Amino acid sequence: MKGIKFFPLFILVLLLSSCGKEFLDTSPITEKTDGNYYANPAEANEALTGCYDALQLIYSNGVAFPVASEVMGDLCFGATGAGDGDGYTMLDAFDKAISPSDLNMFEGNWKDYYKGIFRVNSLLMRLDNVDWGKEASLKPVIEAEARFLRAYFYFDMVRLWEKVPLLTIPTSENVPQSEPDEIYELIAGDLVFAAENLPTKTYSQIATTEYGHATKWAAKGLLARVFLFYTGYYNKTDLVGQLTKDQALAHVEDIVANSGHDLIANYYDLWPAAATYEAQLNGLPISQSTYAGETNQEIVFAIKYTYSSDYNGNTDGNHWMVMNGLRKMAWAKSGYGSGWGACTVLPSFYQGWDAADKRKKASVMAIQEENINYTEINDMKEYTGYFTKKYIPLCDSAGNSTVTALGGVNFMIGQYQDYFVLRFADVLLMAAELGSPNALEYLNRVRARAGVEPAASASKDNIFDERMYELAFEGMRYWDLLRYDHTLEYAAAKIAFAGKVKTGGIEVDKVITGSNLVLTRGLSQIPYNQITLSGAVLQQNPGW
User: Fold this and answer.
1) S-S: 187 plus which of 47, 151, 169, 284, CB 3.0-4.6 Å?
2) In the chain, count of helices (H) and strands (E)?
3) Is 1-62+106-198 a CATH 1.25.40.890 domain?
């Protein structure tokens, strides 16, 4: 297809960067072509590693999905620099008129998603060519992991753009967009296969060499998430005929009962910056934080990152997290590193949060309360006095980036904190929402860890409010808004805003009506370059 014809049919594109995490370590193979590769199980595994490598790639360009999810939601503004373009402000308000020249904000993402899909499809179509020998049992496992990844890529894409070209084999044809049900059918089929064919291992049975790989529990959890979004957004009762509500509930109940995953005791310990802040609250040096690490009992699936990204094609680092850091200033006392000031938090959200809730200070950096001497307000767009805290760069006691201290090339591309795609807390809340007999118990398990009083009922609104607080700034909230009410009136009312923010140090009006969210149906702009390259075979989403 012309719109995505940016990679040759050589294994070189599928090949792997040295990723610094044990399960991704491999040597590049530059002499094998697509025709003579996949000869044995070792090569199939190397190709699978290339598919996982695409998880790091998809959020490395454009507006990364976790960042876009916060900008478009109701808890953050777009922000960034006072002198920067207004692309993030445009996304925040769903208003193309704010920055009409920003026609291709998601183009890097679009291309990288299709690179990942190309890698997966190349592997899947050649699994039968592999001489499996005594390792025949490995074939369905590799297929299951690859199909999990393809489902992951398409689920991001169908939520962002809805109708996208659906590719299940490598092709350079000019493929038109598919209807959403066709895409969801593939997603559901891939995840059901993954759930049925990945090994049944509890958390404690997973070897360190397997960290970062999809598990049976990750597939089941993502399947429930897809069910909830699809049925909510499209006002359906099942997932394209492939999964009922009872079956979705059974999947998450299986995770609760049999996965070995559980909540860790202290919410602060999930996040590096939050753990260092809590150490300060307890009068300890930040070096004595009790951060639980990137692999802990609560994490059902994560995208693994490390600091070894470079400008020679190794995309191993978390490129998007730098967007959320304090703009152009580090705060060494708390270990908060410098970044670009995106996703400033609405004051009303922070100020209305129960002071007893541990998640409040673990999730939000409050400039005044934390006595941060922030000196770059005049360089900020939409400054509110509040920044997110879960995914931000870190610095050492001298204010230097921890990335460069570890040997990373640049703090902008070498952030190494993993992205937690699915936590056990989310599993509990999904099970409650899906109607578990234990719904209230699950809801209150999450609340108990946060230090707040138990809820009286597991009503829809109570569960959605809990998700807002528990999963704030993790790329979940916006999609919850869209699926709450298929008319989108709930989402439109939530994102609507009229008030003051500071841009360039001066108070200015900020208005979001919410009507444009309804007009666009909450969908994002398809890159115009891709529409042009397709010869207008691709059609733009309404409102863009």
Assistant:
1) 151
2) 20, 8
3) yes
